[in-house]
Design brief:
The chain is of the alpha/beta class. It is 37% helix and 20% strand. The chain has a single domain, classed as Rossmann fold (3-Layer(aba) Sandwich).
Amino acid sequence: MARILISEPHEDVRNLLCRIVTDLGHEALVMDVPTPERFLRADLFLVEPAAPIGAVLAKAAHLIRPGLPIVFVSVEPPPELDLEPAGHVMKPFTATQLGDVIDHALRVGWNGHARRLA
């Protein structure tokens, strides 16, 4: 079981992500207040990089904890951030698609190649 930190601006999508993560057997941690401790407690970070604060949080996570796998969950291709995510899944997605990307990111970690599923 991994601790998966979730940053998603839309409450309904955030709740869906939490439910899927929990159904996959992981612990969902919602990024309610961005603090370094939140990144240090997580095994993986799910973030919507197109959100106003999403790209900032992805960069902060990488600075605070360089080995933390980051998975982009987005409605559009990821922005240029000077970092490559451990995975990327485009909205809309299935629970299986998200689970596959999470499993891959947890296996290969930060240094793996981004895995994109449409």
